[in-house]
């Protein structure tokens, strides 16, 4: 559970749950206030825990997309509940 306890991980997963594939800069725009270094660290961790899949198309310029894995998609109902709770209570 520590993987989800950081400041950014839940927000990253929430933003990723809204679309199938997302690129790094698009995700950075959606996650307000996160730096490139922190987003890279978080994505690396989420990939290591098999919550996010990273696909590199080996092109120039680089083209990399991220998507939730099956395990990551299992979290979406919980993320929706957290979002609803937050809207009701804050």
From TrEMBL:
Q: Which GO terms describe its molecular function?
A: DNA binding
Lineage top rank: taxon: Bacteria
User: Which UniProt keyword terms apply here?
Assistant: DNA-binding, Transcription, Transcription regulation
Instruction: Tell me the InterPro entries matching this sequence.
Output: HTH_HxlR, WH-like_DNA-bd_sf, WH_DNA-bd_sf
**Which residue numbers delimit the HTH hxlR-type domain?**
1-90
What is this protein's record name?
A: Transcriptional regulator
Q: State the organism named in the record.
A: Pseudolactococcus piscium
